[in-house]
Structure formats: structure tokens, C-alpha cells
Automatic annotation (TrEMBL):
Known role: Receptor for tyrosine, L-DOPA and dopamine. After binding to L-DOPA, stimulates Ca(2+) influx into the cytoplasm, increases secretion of the neurotrophic factor SERPINF1 and relocalizes beta arrestin at the plasma membrane; this ligand-dependent signaling occurs through a G(q)-mediated pathway in melanocytic cells. Its activity is mediated by G proteins which activate the phosphoinositide signaling pathway. Also plays a role as an intracellular G protein-coupled receptor involved in melanosome biogenesis, organization and transport.
Protein family membership: Belongs to the G-protein coupled receptor OA family.
The encoding gene: Gpr143
Membrane topology summary: Multi-pass membrane protein
Gene Ontology molecular functions: dopamine binding; L-DOPA binding; L-DOPA receptor activity; L-tyrosine binding
Subunit text: Interacts with heterotrimeric G(i) proteins. Interacts with ARRB1 and ARRB2. Interacts with MLANA.
Annotated transmembrane regions: 28-49, 69-89, 109-133, 153-176, 196-222, 243-267, 287-311
Keywords noted in UniProt: Cell membrane, G-protein coupled receptor, Glycoprotein, Lysosome, Membrane, Receptor, Transducer, Transmembrane, Transmembrane helix
UniProt entry tagged with the keyword Transmembrane: yes
Name this polypeptide is given: G-protein coupled receptor 143
Amino acid sequence: MASPRLETYCCPNRDAATQLVMNFQPEVFCGVCIASASVNLLLTILQLLPKKGQSLRKMPKASSSSTILLLISICDIFGGLGMIFRSSVWLGFPDFIANISVVNKTDVWPSAFCVGSAMWIQLLYSAGFWWLFCYAVDSYLVVRRSAGLSTIVLYHMMTWGLAVMLCAEGITLLYYPSLSSCENGLEHAIPHYVTTYAPLLLVLVVNPILFRRTVAAVASLLKGRQGIYTENERRLGTEIQIRFFKIMLVFIICWSSNIINESLLFYLEMQPDINEMPLKNIRSAALITWIIMGVLNPMQGFLFTLAFYGWTGWRVDLKWRKREIPWESLSSSTVGENAYPSPVNYQSNIHDSKKISTTDSQQTDEAISMLSEGNTSGDDRLTRSSPIYQGW
């Protein structure tokens, strides 16, 4: 799982609260992390692989939203791999891990492994948080017709730049001036915890606001397409709203235990003796949420694919043919015909392109389909009238 306690455990003089959770059934905890991360890894890859029975279509460039969704899944996959590697070393080499607790200037590999693996996990999941924030921003900008494939470069700069900067800053402040002196006072620990949880809290607070405004803008777009707001438009708007709700629900389920656990551990740190009997229930709650974190944090990747695309099925098609991948945007066919013409399909689609009455209507359909990509149902009238959904 992803917790700043992983980095603080690398300090030989770690605080009592960190010692409590990290020494609680470490074999069981590492086994839980390996099992959860492995299941998530297999199911996420299964979700993203092309499936048999999908209709053959051209492969135009994806939309910025579909690219962001894929990058979120990739961050979860590599973050899960980091958990599997770290937990496997902990289980397989207990003597190697025991040297972390000893200030040994001749053997730096245990501390290097501890710091490196913890930073890898934190960096990947932090980047996933920033990508999820970019998805909410992009969804709003798409509806406002202010986003496109060109903005993905800005998202890359912001996501990886902020993730690396905050991770490096937090680790530097935590371990300054050396591992042997880290955790000596809150001035070392607090900046590290702030830089770790800042992107998580940003998604929890800002994403629901952006999603709510996006849904309101979608309703205005659907109504303005023909001047009326029919049952089909209302149904499509509801599906987009439900999709955003699923995304936030998965995020809250997977990471609320981290916030609860950290609050309990901070409360224990403020006590003179965390082993006092009146604090027994607090200790038990902290240990329970610690195990829950090991289960839920790695499962975020698979649960997100369910929220993004739904269940894509078991029948995997591994043949090297040009099949549409599950994360491809439903609007990408229209984008490919107009903004990024294909040498093979451009001529055959000229006739279909002439059927579009106005450019505004086409842009509206593109924006809405980007938000509803992956849905198997939608606006029946849009399916009949728009080339976005032809052949689907």
C-alpha cells in the first residue's frame, strides 16, 4: 500500500506509532499486499487487453480523456509492481530487512532498498492522483471546447513535474541531514506527510466540484443541440453523472482508510505512552485500518477500470491485428476523419462527413462521447444521427 509510514520506517529512530503498525504481523501484512496487488495486476491487464468479438475499425488517435484514463491505469499497474517487489523482499529476506533498524554505515543496501522502494510506490500513486485531477479538468475543458490532444503535453508536464517535485521535497526534508537523524522532531515528518497527502486531498475536494460543473455543462450542451431536452438527452446526462460518481466512489473506498489510519496514528504520537490501556481501542482501530489499506490501495487500478469501462469480459484476443483497444474513445472516429485523416479510410469517409449538418453539432457530439466512452448504452437518437457511434 501507499503510506508515508513506509518512508518513516526507513529511519532507525522511527516514532512509536510507526513502529506499532510496521511490526504488527509483518508476514501477514506483506502477504496481504502481495495477494491484493497481484490480483489487481492480473485483472487490470485483463480489462485493458483487446477482446474477441469486438468490431474491426480503424485506429485513429485517441482523445486526451481516453489517454489520461490509460495513464491512470499504467500508474496503478507499476505502483502495484512496486508493492509486490517490496513485500516479496520483506518476506524472503528478513535478515536483510532487520538491518534497516540498525545504524550501520558499512551496509547501506537495506536502507537504500527501503528508501528506493518506498519512493517508487509513493511517486507512482502520487502521479495517479495528479492524472485523476487532470481527468476532471480535461472533462470540464472538453465540454467547454477548450481542450484537445494538444493539452496532453501540458498534463504530462504538470503531473510528472509535481509528482517528482513533491516526492523529492518530502523525502529530502524527512531524511535531512541523514537517515540516522530523520524523524527527530515534527519539522522532519510534517512536510513529508503534507507532500504525500496533498494530491490525494486535492482529488477528494476539487474533483467533485469539477465533475458537478461538467455535468451541468453537458446538460446545457444536450439541450442546445436541438433546443429541447428529451428523455434521451436526460438519460445520457445521467449516465455521465453516474460515471463520475463511480470514479469518486472508488477513490473514496480505496483511500479513506489511509486518512483514518493516519489520523489515528497522529493521535497516538501525541500521547506520552501509546501502550496505555485507555488507548487500546485506538491502537486496535489503527491496526485494523492498516490491514485494510494493504487490501484496498492496490485494488484501485482494477476498480477504476470497472468505473471507466465496465466489465470488458474474459475473452482476450492476443492476435496482432488492428483491433480497437478498450480505452479508445468513441469520438475518436470523428476526430480521425476530420482532424487526423487516415490515408486508408479518409476517402471512404468523405461521403459520411457530408451528412453532418453543422460544425457545432459535431463538436457537441464529440465532447459528449469523450465523456461517455466505454458506455454500452447511451443516447438512441445520437446513435442514429451521429457518425460518432456508427459501427458500434
